[in-house]
Amino acid sequence: MATATNPDRIVPDIDPAAIQLGLDTFGDVTERPGSTPLAGEHLSHAQTIRNLVDQAVLADEVGLDFIGVGEHHRVDFAVSAPEVVLGAIAARTENIRMGSAVTVLSSDDPVRVYERFATVDALSNGRAEVILGRGSFTESFPLFGLDLADYEVLFEEKINLFSELLKDEAVSWTGTKRGALDQQWVYPRPESGTLKTWVGVGGSPQSVIRAAHYGMPLFLAIIGGQPAQFAPYSDLYRRALDQFGQAPQPIAMHSPGFVAATDEEALEILYPYQEAQTNQLGRERGWGPYTKEQYFASAAEDGALYVGSPETVARKIARNLRLLGATRFDMRYSMGLLPHEHMMSSIGLYGREVAPMVRELLASEVAAV
């Protein structure tokens, strides 16, 4: 399928029945219920984690397809061991798939990652997924005694080993940053024989090609700019899969968002939390102050922030799934200190109203062709 803006692009048709709508979270520490916004009254890490499990239970109840839990090792995020949280989610849910968002493979051991997710897979009756990435923070490197100078080689070697672990056979492997394996089995074994594993990419062509080389599905993390800027990456991925002789694989996308009854309500509720979080990161990374102009530009139809009424958010998701030829959209629903009750309300609207509307929009376009 060519697109209106670029008739030379070849984008596969989307089967509306195959579309998946999910969520992900970094386990952001949040404000206490009823506190003055941004007044410094925060929940404990422990309560934030318990609330996260309740959020996943609601996501399951409203029919969403996936819940992803990120990994960080800093004070503003509560989750440093996502697989433990996923185990708790597995015990309290029935249908929703679950995974990392992302697993920072560079600073972990591939064998232990495989073992932990195979355990979550067992607890959830085969609902576990792994999203491998390098992460947008680097605090795990000094914490685990790793040298940032090895950033590239660590990820390259570890994803190579992980790809071998996914095969249902004994593994022999040699690298430079961990001990070799010689005909080694790793347990427990997933009942299906393997773990569904994605590669999370934030905008590097080399990472896109790496995902295609290993025949792993591609997960595009679109947290700024415009989704249209990522269309070349989805095109590159499909071409690379073909050149590597790999079977076609799905593409998914992740972006932040918030749903409320109206556009005005959603924009008003989210702004102070989005501003505070962006400015905190800006102070760490040398960005300038976040402005309302930037906020509204990101929330516009061609921006990367999915904030608004169910109809507004659904139309934006459907548009960008078509644009990228993707079959899954995960919304990051935890935004800085945004309170638990706002997140629960947004999750409910996203599952009950946005998800079916996205499928209806895509189905109506198929029927019109």
UniProtKB/TrEMBL annotation:
Transport in keyword set: no
Pfam (any one): Bac_luciferase
Lineage, top ranks: Bacteria, Bacillati, Actinomycetota, Actinomycetes, Micrococcales
Keywords in alphabetical order: Monooxygenase, Oxidoreductase
InterPro entries per record: Bact_Lucif_Oxidored, LLM_Atu2307-like, Luciferase-like_dom, Luciferase-like_sf
Domain of life: Bacteria
Protein name as catalogued: LLM class flavin-dependent oxidoreductase
Domain Luciferase-like: 41-327
NCBIfam families the record matches: LLM_2I7G
